[in-house]
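Known limitations

Files may contain more than one protein. Parsers should not assume a single record per file. Below, a two-record file is shown to illustrate correct handling: read the sequence, read the token line, then continue until end of file.
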Amino acid sequence: MATMAYITTNDSIQLHYTRKGSGTKTLVLVHGWQVSSAVWNLVADELSRKYQLIIVDLRGAGASNAAPGPYTVEQHSEDLFNLVQSLELKNFVLVGHSMGGAIAQRFAADHCELLVGLIVIASVPASGLELPADFQAFFRSAAGNRSQTEALWKVFIANPLAAETFTMLLDSSMTVKPEACLESFDSWRQLNFADEVKRIMTPTLVIAPEADNPMTPDFLREKIVALIPNSRLRVIEKTSHYAQLEQPQELGKLITHFVDELCSL
């Protein structure tokens, strides 16, 4: 059974989260750019059978979309800190996808003592991501535009999703304020804290969907695994950017194996 609630951040905005499942281990799930926490629904069904999940809607997205900016990776990380402090969480596993992976790395670099594990999936690296001008324009065109968002997501999905799953993805995208879409896009493109992630000592799992581009396994190995000392790479085959929608069971198995291994240490 899931419960939904809000916490108030240090700048007095309402941040929405969902609590689902139970267990002695807690996982905090952070979604990526131009979507809401709904993208975790399928894999959350798997994970909540064994763990307590805290699933956040970043400011400007989902049920937190009334919140004003700034909509930057740094602000999202600070919001996440407010959330875990409010819920008195510690020794949890932080899981981030795409931009959420960059937020998770920022959080881990600043608050490593709160974490027992870190998982990043198809993650934007701490050094940001260079994109050609035409591709930047394609991303920007998604702000508040359902048809352009649909075209964009089709580029990032290798295996056709069930119609209801793809509709859920689009619906979640349309909860994101256009200004949040645009500002956060510029934020994660221009990140520059690669030297700081070298101090992350938390056991870290980097998950690379085989068919993702530009976050290929080789790219993530060079930009993330090579920097975080206690990290390892795992590849999900025949999957692109949205592994949690394309192969939720396989992703769930990777996460579960890593978390259970942490528990045995």
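...continuing to the second record:
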Amino acid sequence: MKITSMSLYAIRLPLHQPFIISYHTYHDMPSIIVKLETDEGVVGYGEAVPDEHVTGETWESTFHLLKNTLGPAIIGENPLQIEKIHEKMNKVAYGVPAAKAALDIACFDLIGKKLNQPVYQLIGGRYHEEFPITHVLSIGEPEKMANEAAEQVQMGYTSFKIKVGTDVMKDIERIKAVYERVNGEAVIRIDVNQGWKTTAQTLKGIRALEDIDIDWLEQPVLADDIDGMAFIRSKTDMSLMIDEGLKGQREMKEIIQKNAADRVNIKLMKCGGILPASKLAYQAELAGIECQVGSMVESSIASSAGFHVAFSKKNITSVELTGPLKFSKDVGNLQYNVPFIRLNEQPGLGIEVDEAILAELTVFKDTIC
């Protein structure tokens, strides 16, 4: 089996409501959809959702890198040789994990369809039967966030991730408002998205939360400050998760060496796809670190890829792949049974791509052979 062509679609996924985190407000989500075709007529889909705040990649740069550099490097290659595919991509471009993830995901979709197996069977087999879905509360006024949490509890959600990262004491108001509304009915996780920046500000926030049962605190300091995370961990028994600070194996090694986190958030867009994510999970397992598979708010294509990784690894104990639930239109049909996700047994990613919606959402496109 050889890859014979690649089609690229630069799309913007419409959100039900703006998604607000510490460093940006998203009114829609820019995404690059990749369609690979082979000489055997098998078609595979992948996706890149770049974030210049996290990996330095933009929507436009990712499209052109895929078109002019990464795509040409893998045309003619056998997608079954996934290690070789990554080696070729790494030779022609340093970093750019979201762009590489798009091709990695599409190749795994091809492999699964070729072998008539779900992707999770290719990377360890199914370990988990289902995952509860965490509802993400974007930054807003405390009462508004508390009301949303209460509404979602009625829908069956049992865990919430509260997005904060503006002013520390205002963030404490948000957290306490949600906690007081859903205490005893749901667990609370706090994601600062680097917004508290320093160890001093973070410790100030932690002290203000001492009387609240927090499941974990995620990435309070700047991404590159792994020493800061290690220092905070030495000063508190609150469970700490690293997200933006973990991209690949080098950062994971440093996190392990410095005892900088209790948990890590693996995202396919940060590390380069399914194969690198699987390697990170195994690396964390050797160090006794629990993992989550997170999201850059992706469509059904990349979200399903993340779920396949999560379902195949025993030390992945939570998922946060709720992008499709936030979109008013999606290019795929990943099925959620709120408040749970249960994968089907269809080959490849196990989803169907709606070509009509893909065409409707496309801003610009191209094909290389």
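Parsers that stop after the first record will miss the second one. For reference, the second record is described as follows. The domain at 121-341 is CATH 3.20.20.120 (TIM Barrel).
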